[in-house]
Amino acid sequence: QQQVKQSPQSLIVQKGGISIINCAYENTAFDYFPWYQQFPGKGPALLIAIRPDVSEKKEGRFTISFNKSAKQFSLHIMDSQPGDSATYFCAAKGVETSGSRLTFGEGTQLTVNP
Amino acid sequence: GAVVSQHPSWVICKSGTSVKIECRSLDFQATTMFWYRQFPKQSLMLMATSNEGSKATYEQGVEKDKFLINHASLTLSTLTVTSAHPEDSSFYICSAPAGIATYEQYFGPGTRLTVT
Hints:
Chain A has no helices and 11 strands. Chain A has 114 residues and is mostly beta strands. In chain B, 0% of the residues lie in helices and 52% in strands.
């Protein structure tokens, strides 16, 4: 079964610091890797995504780093703010899967202290 | 990004009754929609894939007779929890790919179901 493993489970960062969340996958048959942000009681919101032909993608304060050989990808949040406090999920889409079916990581609860 | 809505946002029902949750894509058409359930402090668990014009595909362990899915149009999918029990209380979320040419998938705001 395809799996995506996410770490850490929880993360506390000071305001202005860098938040780093890591994900690793076991199957090479993934071709799309999104990150989602979820606030309590809300649905996940697409934050940023990357495809395996790119090693890094940056959008504002959010950067995805992708290491295809290590089967790992990570989310970096620069200049972390208290408003970034949320749960973050990495995900991956299988090459053979139709309709954009995603496999999710376990989630990381980020707390940014003021 | 594309917008997906859900209705209701929260519902309380008595054990043994049925509850219907609607998922709509507001500004795009979705031939496929996904239904997830999420327990507190846990990840999203895919329940089923809803396909417009055909039967839904259920994940292993999900009772198809209990969680009825109907993809009535290119913008609407419904999930009906039949004969609800307290253990069905959860956060139900739908999602839809924004289009054939993109992998981007957008989620609804979720529906909190409480069965008493």
